[in-house]
Design goal:
With 374 residues, this protein is mainly alpha-helical. The protein is flat. Helix content is 76%, strand content 0%.
Length: 374
């Protein structure tokens, strides 16, 4: 590890070497690009997130000034930022979404300042803090991208893998391309319908569950008239998650012993209705979920069938199907990786490995089956 000399130490040195100047100019370009990314993102956000992003841009501006001071008269024509920062800038301008935040989080995490003695210790620390700030913002975004997006990726993935396995297994048995195509289309419809039906049931059940678990108005109106002692009311509130103490106090309020309404959080009053509505929105409607997961599965499952639709046959068709699915698996793996804050390349390769593994097993089974049938 190098020691941090900070600005003073760097300034006392003799003329910087050409490689130093190049490195500093690159840092300068990247800091400018990063600040721009945060400003673009801030434009698309309101309130707290807006001010957090602007503060990040400001910090990158301070770093930019550090490199400008170091370069002094050596600051020539500005260099281009790294490819990653150029891509980030482009995405931030166009989309300003959780993806950009997830990418920015990774960029901050890779900062070279900790191992560079021309950067101050404070700057290296800044970048680490930035990573945490951006992680926090990205997490908010990830949570907002409720189930629907994950359902999309997993549905498509499911379609890709299961239908590739089916098509490859069928073609390995040596049956004609027409039969493989028919099997692929049946697999697509069967899988998509079953996904849709499963989603519908799960969303309906979840909504019913939410409805059943919502605290009701009964304790507001009925408590003072009921012929029960406060202990039973205490049980109601404890069952809803209050501590013993808070529940006793709440029961006393309800029985009319205290006149205040100190902690309405677990009695259903008007403000509560809002949060329940949000819960339902996060769950979505049964039909919406069913139709979207049908489409997602179908969009994945159509991939391995395409070569057969376009008239390719035999081994060539199987190879093209595997290649198409491979590309799609890499893409969905990278997206899931980005969203979960994991390295996208690793996730993409893992997804590919799992998909191809499943297809290879069915291919071998298909070969065996083809031999026994023959």
């Amino acid at each position: 590890m190098h020691h941090h000399h900070g600005r003073q130490g760097a300034a006392e040195r003799s003329e910087p070497s050409a490689s130093d100047v190049r490195r500093w100019e690159q840092y300068l370009a990247d800091e400018r690009a990063e600040a721009a990314v945060y400003r673009y993102l801030a434009r698309k956000r309101k309130g707290e997130e807006h001010s957090i992003l602007l503060a990040l841009a400001e910090a990158e501006g301070r770093h930019e000034q550090h490199w400008l001071d170091l370069l002094g008269e050596h600051a020539g024509t500005p260099r281009r930022p790294s490819v990653r920062n150029r891509v980030l800038g482009y995405l931030a301008k166009r989309f300003g979404s959780v993806f950009v935040l997830a990418l920015a989080q990774r960029a901050e995490g890779r900062s070279p300042y900790a191992n560079d003695d021309d950067a101050t210790a404070a700057m290296a620390a800044d970048e680490q803090i930035h990573e945490e700030v951006v992680r926090g913002l990205a997490t908010r975004g990830r949570n907002r991208l409720s189930g629907s997006f994950r359902a999309a990726v997993f549905g498509a993935n499911d379609g890709l893998v299961s239908n590739l396995a089916l098509v490859i297994g069928m073609s390995a048995t040596g049956v004609g391309s027409g039969i493989v195509l028919a099997a692929g289309v049946s697999g697509l419809l069967a899988g998509a319908l079953s996904m849709g039906a499963g989603e519908y049931v799960s969303v309906r059940s979840q909504r019913e569950l939410l409805r059943a678990s919502r605290p009701t108005q009964i304790t507001l109106k009925a408590a003072s008239q009921l012929d029960i002692d406060s202990n039973e009311l205490v049980l109601v509130y404890r069952a809803r998650g209050m501590s013993q103490e808070a529940a006793e106090h709440r029961a006393a309020e309800r029985m009319g012993i205290y006149s205040c309404d100190c902690d309405p959080s677990l009695s259903l009053q008007e403000p509560e209705v809002e949060s329940n509505r949000e819960e339902h929105e996060a769950v979505g409607t049964g039909w919406g979920a069913a139709i979207s997961s049908f489409c997602f599965f179908a969009s994945g499952a159509i991939m391995p069938v395409l070569p057969y639709i376009f008239g390719l046959e035999g081994l060539i068709a199987a190879i093209v199907a595997a290649a198409l699915v491979g590309l799609a698996l890499l893409a969905t793996g990278a997206v899931v990786g980005l969203l979960s804050g994991a390295p996208p390349i690793k996730r993409a390769l893992r997804q590919l490995g799992i998909g191809y593994g499943a297809a290879a097993v069915t291919y071998l089974l298909g070969l065996l089956f083809g031999v026994t049938v023959a």
